[in-house]
Design goal:
The chain is mostly beta strands and about 750 residues long. About 5% of the residues lie in helices and about 55% in strands. A hairpin with a 7-residue loop joins β39 and β40. The radius of gyration is 26 Å and the shape is globular.
Length: about 750
Amino acid sequence: MLAAWGNGLAAQAQNTAVLRGSVADSASGRPLSGVSVRLVDRVGGTVADELGQFRLTGLPPGTYVVRASGLGFGARQQTVMVAANQTATVALRLPATTLTLAEVTVAQPRDPNQSLAVISNIDKLLRPVNSAQDLLPLVPGLVIAQHAGGGKAEQIFVRGFDADHGTDFNVSIDGLPVNMVSHAHGQGYADFHFVIPETVDQLRVYKGPYTARFGDFATAGAGEFTTKTRLDQSQVKLEVGRFDTRRAVALLNLLPVRAAKQRPAAAYVAAEYTFTNSYFDAKQHFKRFNGLAKYTGQLSDRTSLMVLGSQFGSQWDASGQIPERGIRDGLISRFGSIDPTEGGSTSRTNATAVLTTDLPHNAVLRQQVYYTRYDFNLFSNFTFFLNDPVNGDQIRQTDARNLYGYTGTYSRDWQVGSRMLRTVAGLGTRLDDTHIALRNSVRRVVRDTIRAGRVYEQNVNGYLEGTIGLTDRLTLNAALRADYFRFAFREDRTAADSASGKAGKGRVSPKLNLYYDVSPAVQLFVRSGFGFHSNDARAVVSNATANVLPRAIGYEVGGTFKPVPAMVVNAALWVLHLQDELVYVGDEGVVESAGRTRRLGFDLSARYQLTRLLFADVDLNLSRGRLVDEPDGANRIPLAPSLTSIGGLTLRAPGGLGASLRYRHIDSRAANEDNSVRARGYFLLDAVVSYTKSRFQVGASIENLLNVAWNQAQFDTTTRLRNEAAPVSELHFTPGTPFYAKLNASVFF
């Protein structure tokens, strides 16, 4: 009987058809990625890929109406007939139109775990991006704080986490990992400044540990950025602003749009140079250069290739964190510094290639290789004269890293009775070979070495994921991911030192998610999954009791819906348990364990078209986090936010005028376990205005419109000032940007 059932399924699969097609801008011929494609009067659908290509499989023979629609483009449909065991093709051309949210549907049939896709697609068109610091906050509910005026990676706050520089949020760009394991300054360190904002095309957001594609650091979630496949136009852009700020950007198309009968291909280069002295009393002399080259092409009817290379370099002086008493006692101004010789430099070179091949039996093989060369050099002074009353406590942290990786996925659609099962099998490895060091220094002159050595850390991972429609409305997504880490650290000064050693650890992470499409305007979900974040290799090999891969367990319930045609809302009630909250203390080169934590929260994102030209958006994120094993009154998670919110109003006029008024808010919160020191919250207003025509754009942006005195990074730190009799524990902070205006002008060609 089983054999007969299997033969029946095979025969049924053999009688199905495939529909392939492409979607492009009707005016320019530019391929459109991310456009929704579905069959009229049939459940399910797909989205166009980076080359505007799409594929629908497992179709019974017959005549179908194919409909494509995307934000900012008019929907188009075409009738096509498909025959058994054949592949039919269709080309759809969409005209640009006025943006209207009434056209939006909420389901994501190809990637149901990307429940924030609709929100992100709207933000891509409406939310202004003026600098690299604006990229990470595109993730709904994510707030950043800068430590050093733009030179270091930002401090990340998301879903009730002070994720430091990325310990609990996974970031990638074009498949390149951004988070650095066993970094000299912080575990999961995610410096995103090597990305040119004007080249970013899409963002896929995944909250919580529910998606098998992500392993390390994806406890609170993950953000996948992709750069543009091609440029709409070449562009030269110049910016000038307060505090000696200057920026120049150039983006140049290298290939013309190809004729319809030719295989699509695109290539472009981009470059960015930035200089600013920033707003601190001591000039920051901040300089950054970014370069990017990218090619994407269809090598054959079944194979496409993407090749990307980029180069980034930055150097700066920094004022560092300052104590409240230094301002109160008149020792320094709000924008002054205790140690004006802080600062550093960093660079990153990336190379990656992605080969995607369509295989028989409706399968796709995607393979990516990548390499990164990374160098980091930072001088900091967190405690001033606490440990050395004469010379001070300045330290130098360095990281010289080679990063190698491979990621492969094999996806295939299977006919299971009348249902389609989509499976994805993934296999990957990442090797970090780095030399890291922590040294004492005085005014950037190294005095002695605290700890230095070479880290070899390799992760091998694999996962299997399946998505099937149990009914026309109910979709099940289940997955199992396995990771194995190999850690090795060799201390420079002696191989026999107890700090040197090797260790290994594995982790298995199951995921289970359910999605129910009530209608094209309402999708509900229940999600659950296990995840983890890794410990620093130095702590792992030197401490046999160290928690190597602390587990995270998360679950949530929520939905994406349209209460009225012009509004899109995403809401989720979530819980996350973390086995061990690890904090890397960079100035001491050690990892501190806070023990088990529990967080619960509520996320709300809403996008509303008030009129034909005016749009409103808001992200509201509530959370409550506590240390599980500590008594009441001593169980606060330091710096964990309980309320963050971002939102604003955006005007898009048909004549080319655009404007946006936006706010940022984070609440005051405990800076230590007993809540005796509080980090101060803030509410800020920013404004952007632009005027765009076919050949040029002019604009202006203002940060902190009301010139509020606010704190960015904040910590409860024990320090001693020069000639101070005893140490003092109090709030230390980096002051936030005062009123800051910037003008820009672009030419398109």
